[in-house]
Amino acid sequence: MQHSGKSPDTCYLIPATNMNQSLINYTLQIADNNLILGQRLSEWCGHAPELEIDIALTNIALDLIGQSRNLYQYAAELEGKGRSEDDIAYLRDSSRYRNVLLVEQPNEDFAYTIARQFFFDVYNHLFYQELTKSKDERLAEIAEKSLKEINYHIRFSSEWMIRLGDGTKLSHEKIQTAVDDLWDFIGEMTLLNDTDREMLSNGIGVDLNKIRPLYFQKVKEILAEATLNIPVEEPFQKGGKNGIHSEFLGHLLAEMQWMQRAYPGAEW
Amino acid sequence: MDNHNNIHSLEMKFQSKIDAEVKIEPKDWMPEAYRKTLIRQISQHAHSEIVGMLPEGNWILRAPSLRRKVALLAKVQDEAGHGLYLYSAAETLGISREELFEQLITGKAKYSSIFNYPTLSWADIGAVGWLVDGAAIMNQVMLTRTSYGPYARAMVRICKEESFHQRQGYEILISLSRGTEEQKKMLQDAVDRWWWPALMMFGPNDSASTHSEQSLKWKIKRKSNDELRQDFIDATVLQANYLGVKLPDPNLKWNEERGHYDFGDINWEEFWAVVNGNGPCNKLRLKARKKAQEEGAWVREAAMAHAEKRAKRKAEKVA
After folding, report:
1. Of A168, A209, B84, B125, which has the maximum CB count within 10 A?
2. Residue B253, beta-bridge partner list
3. Phi, psi of A76 (to 5 degrees)
4. Residue B261 pairs with which residues in a beta bridge?
5. What residues in B contact A163, CB-CB < 8 Å?
6. Count of CB atoms within 10 A of residue A117's CB?
7. A residues 194-233 lying closer than 8 A (beta carbon) to B
8. Where is B262: in which H helix or E strand?
9. Are the C-beta atoms of residues A208 and A30 closer than 8 Å to each other?
10. Which chain B residues contact residue A1 at CB under 8 A?
11. To the nearest 10°, the Cα dihedral for A206, A208, A214, A216?
12. Contact between A8 and A21 (Cβ < 8 Å)
């Protein structure tokens, strides 16, 4: 990937004034979820509870970052200004990131990491299934390819939800706490913003209204199997999809983007 | 007396198998000392893979491009995989992974001292790939022909991936060598710091090595520390020239007569200090492994408890 060395402020997610810009924004909205969660999972590399888990979490991180690269490359092509995937990932500030709040939440411990992963995987699985039907061939193709990977992710995280929930008293408490704390963040994934609505009306985007009931159904099913309480509150935290993030994202980006910011224009 | 004779004849038979290049397999009779040496060496090797994940993992989150990030993640993941094969190979000798982990955490077992040095810049990731993996490969290629079957077979798989890692490291350095002044400086600085520790990876001089002679006889090793070190230096100097870096040894020069590069004295005081726990990162590395092991205990327990519950429920259903 060539680095163009262009200044960060002219970058992405400017308000859409045309279809092409909307499609770029939509593509980035998907990609950002993958990159940020991939970065979070990478924090485990070398530190997981056992070697097999270390390898599995890294696998998922690799898949997610790989997916984000496909999408960033597509966005860069759509934009047609010669920018690269790295320009998009490394030279955008947090307010221009469009990932959901859930994926930027810190790892905390293995229970949080698994709960976060599970909540995301259920969404991602439903989302990509729908995206394979997109009128945009490239997005449909990326979704098709990614689904094979996501099938593995959702199996991994669901199985761990059940193991931890229906394991020891301690593991049950830890995963229940993680579920209760992260519950707040799961509503945002299936709420439509302007970009979602525009893409939906053009036959490109996924109908999130359609997948919302399926999402909660699947989540509750696994929580029940894991012998966990299902929180009764409405999940209310939102903002990430419109660029209003939690305090955590800035730190994540500061670390991730540091080299590109410190050595502008250098190639690696 | 009978027993003594019996053991003697078993030992003779064992050695003749080794001499005839027949691989020793887990169920074969082997001298206790052979078993012990292998457990020590294979576990040391496995621990090195696992501890080695830490200095490289240190740069995953800050990797300067997505391509480099993915490559580094995959590399560190490969090392976890190598650790798994090697722990499995050690387990064939009658010791469990838990016991081996315990030995690592309590400091009873060693791992390669090289991982007690810090990775301070992105160039270190390239230098570790080029020099550290490069040195490891010298040793590992030899070990694909080691006399113990499971170890040799693990090594064949590992070698394939390691040579890929080395090329990947070298490629990082090539990019730096073609980059800005700052990048070139970063490159030279990394090579300055990693060169001597990489040479130390081959262990003490043959004259000072305690385990070498017997290991050669048993064909656990097939080349001495000094031979391997010389092979590595001879192979690496040209690569350094191509990168345009200076190896930090004023005495490094081609010796026509020997057909090898001569090189300066290794600082063995530093080597032993690091082996004995006083390197820059010894405490840090062990602490990280210990933390992962301790903080992961509840997860492993939960998995076990759940598996037991399932098995019980299944049995009840059948009944």
Report:
1. B125
2. B262
3. -65, -40
4. B254
5. 302-303, 306
6. 26
7. none
8. strand B260-262
9. no
10. 65-67
11. 140
12. no
Instruction: Give contacts of B300 with chain A, Cβ < 8 Å.
Output: 49-50
Which two tokens mark A151?
A: 């099938």
Cβ(A102)–Cβ(A172) under 8 Å? no
How many other CB atoms are found less than 10 A from the CB of residue A129?
A: 16
CB contact under 8 A, B68 and A268: yes
pLDDT digits (tens, 9 = 90+) for B84-111: 999 999 999 999 999 999 999 999 999 9
| Helix axes B282-295 and B297-318, enclosed angle (nearest 10) | 30
> What is the pTM assigned to this prediction?
0.94
Per-residue confidence (pLDDT) for residue A13, from 0 to 100: 53
Q: Give residue A234's pLDDT band: very low, low, confident or very high (50, 70, 90).
A: confident
Residues B259-272: what's their mean pLDDT? Answer: 97
Per-residue model confidence (pLDDT) at position B58: 98
**Quick one: how many helices (H) and strands (E) in chain A?**
10, 0
CA distance linking residue A234 with residue A189, whole number of Å: 13
Phi, psi of A267 (to 5 degrees): -110, 145
Output the CA angle A152-A157-A158, nearest 5 degrees: 100
Amino acid at B278: N
Across-strand partners of B262?
A: B253
Nearest-Cα residue of chain B relative to residue A49: B296
Judged by a CB distance cut-off of 8 A, whether residue A50 touches chain B is yes
Residues B226, B206 contacting (CB under 8 angstroms): yes
Contacts of A255 in chain B (CB under 8 A): 61-62
Single-letter amino acid, residue B138: M
**pLDDT tier at B210, thresholds 50, 70, 90:** confident
Looking at the DSSP bridge assignments, the partners of residue B260 are B255
Q: What is the mean pLDDT of chain A?
A: 94
Q: State both tokens at A136.
A: 């945009």
One-letter amino acid identity for B62? R
Mutate to test the interface with B, among A45, A67, A255, A267 (most CBs of B within 10 A): A45
Q: Which domains does chain A have, with CATH numbers?
A: 17-262 (1.20.1260.10)
Q: Which chain B residues touch A62 with a CB distance below 8 Å?
A: 70, 73-74, 77
Min Cα–Cα distance to chain A from B301, Å: 7
DSSP letter at B254? E
